[in-house]
Amino acid sequence: MHVVDMWEAPIGEPLELAVTAGLPPVPLPEHCHVEQLIWHGDPLTGPLRVCVAARGANVLTLRIASPDRIVADVRVRRGPARTPRPHALLRTDLRPGVQYTRLFAVTKDVTTDHVPDAEPVLSTPSLIAFMEDTAADILRAVFAPGTASLGTWIGIRHSGPASAGQSVTVTAVLADVRGRRYLFDVRATVDGREIGDGQVAQTLISQNP
After folding, report:
1. Which domains does the chain have, with CATH numbers?
2. Global pTM?
3. pLDDT digits over 175-202, tens only?
4. DSSP string, 70-132
């Protein structure tokens, strides 16, 4: 299978591509760019295989996997990458690197107790909500009148517990700006112990008539 055939390759069938340790981790056809790269926690070590996991008219997701687990997903889009630029829906420009940290209390209403005979712990939906809210706070501080934002993508790994009565520290760092879409790296800890990390995206909308 040649590289140029990835737009026509059957979903799930391996592509004969050489996976590299650089970025992007697979060679791309001309006039394409990596829109998003999602690591799943494992290093790029061989042997690895690549397949098309999903495809639209101008976007496809390449899945990189070892024999027993998924290593990364690479979202590829046809056309040139969009250049970050100030957006009229904000009062001031935001550039990658700006960050914000919030502290959240683990109360009973954000825990899950569906596991019999187990201590209630912070639920994954609640952790995601903490992360999205922290990321949104970066945008809210510079909203122009009539501006709001919506969560439009999440890729979170919930890696540790947080019990009722503990506090969760969440930090969001702006990683990428593409038009109205703002991508954030997020990390959650309890007493310095990481309990979750990943990325969330917020997209600006106008509430003006």
Report:
1. 3-78 (no CATH), 99-206 (3.10.129.10)
2. 0.73
3. 988 888 999 999 999 999 999 999 999 9
4. EEEEEEEEESPPPPP---TTBSS---TT-EEEEEEE--GGGEE--STTS--EE-HHHHHHHHH
